[in-house]
Amino acid sequence: MVSPVSQGGRPRQPSLAQLRAFVAVAEHLHFREAAAEIGMSQPALSGAVSALEEALGVQLVERTTRKVLLSPAGERLAARARTVLEAVGDLMEEAEAARAPFTGVLRLGVIPTVAPYLLPAVLRLVHETYPDLDLQVHEEQTASLLDGLAHGRLDLLLLAVPLGVPQVTELPLFDEDFVLVAPKEHWLGGRGDIPRQALQELDLLLLDEGHCLRDQALDICREAGRDENTPVTTSAAGLSTLVQLVAGGLGVTLLPRTALRVETGRNDHLTTGYFADPAPSRTIALAMRTGAARQGEFEEFAEALRGALRGLPVRIAKG
Question: How confident is the model at residue 2 (pLDDT cuts 50, 70, 90)?
Fold first, then answer.
């Protein structure tokens, strides 16, 4: 291995391109896939990794004809390399924000039980108020969104809180009640004073594992005294399918108020009922990395979004 010293006697500094190449290889353990991810040719990527090894004076990657492995030093330095690249990304983000707020790319992550009902208002706000903002929307479940936020793949999240995650700042937008949705002739249909205890014995339909709305509904049921051994039918990956199952008489479900009109408005086989105060509810918020370079911009965006959502059947949070 060549010593990491240039001909002038000074230690060589690795380039960002070399670090990006190494991190891509560390994540994929495959040169072709790593090259495709960062838009380099495979020979160029291999050369960048070799140059980084020469600059650092350590072997980072073990190459065989069939697979790629990280050396012990590679395992340790891959984490360092990621930190360096994230820091450079933060530097560029801060410089962009300093040049002009509400310009450039904003990568917004949204959970599936929010996206169809709030995105029209979000997109309208961006179009009318922030026309120079390049909004990119990613619909994913909460765990994936938080991972994307932590690793810099996403800038801002729109989801249910509280999250209880360190280094994530929540900007509450509103609270909304849950509504019982049942088959048309159900005995709870049309009521406005349903006690939570009614959930103890109902045939309840929920979303699949991984949806935060499923977890919220189960929490509500536990608070209502529902036996944890009482079966819950899980049959739907989305709210639209869930509502169709209810219309078919397979059980009842809980919908957030913002989803009610979209999901039940065109179905004559459904009825709704409202819970007695205090009704079970959820809080929807924007979430960002604590200390994000664009924190002031995101706080302003949250306040503007609160105003844009005032026509919905929700309780707007105070800024």
Answer: very low
**What pTM, to 2 d.p., does this model score?**
0.69
pLDDT at 57 over 70: yes
Domains in the chain and their CATH numbers? Answer: 16-94 (1.10.10.10), 101-174+283-316 (3.40.190.10), 175-281 (3.40.190.10)
Closest CA to 105 of 297, 280, 247: 297
Task: Give Cβ neighbours of residue 258 (< 8 Å, ≥ 6 apart).
Answer: 114, 117, 118, 176, 312, 313, 314
CA distances for 150 relative to 83, 145, 163, 218, angstroms? 12, 9, 13, 27
Side-chain-side CA neighbours of residue 309 (13 Å)? 27
Residue 116 has φ and ψ, to the nearest 5°, of -65, -20
Residue 4 has pLDDT above 70, yes or no: no
Q: What is the pLDDT of residues 212-250, one digit of tens each?
A: 777 777 778 777 777 666 666 656 778 888 899 999 988
Q: What distance separates the 2 farthest-apart alpha carbons in the chain?
A: 86
Integer Cα distance of 313 and 274 in angstroms: 13
Output the pLDDT for position 213.
74
**Residue 273: other Cβ atoms inside 10 A:** 19
Q: Phi first, then psi: what are they for 315, rounded to 5°?
A: -105, 105
CA atoms of 66 and 133, how far apart (whole Å):
45
DSSP 224: T
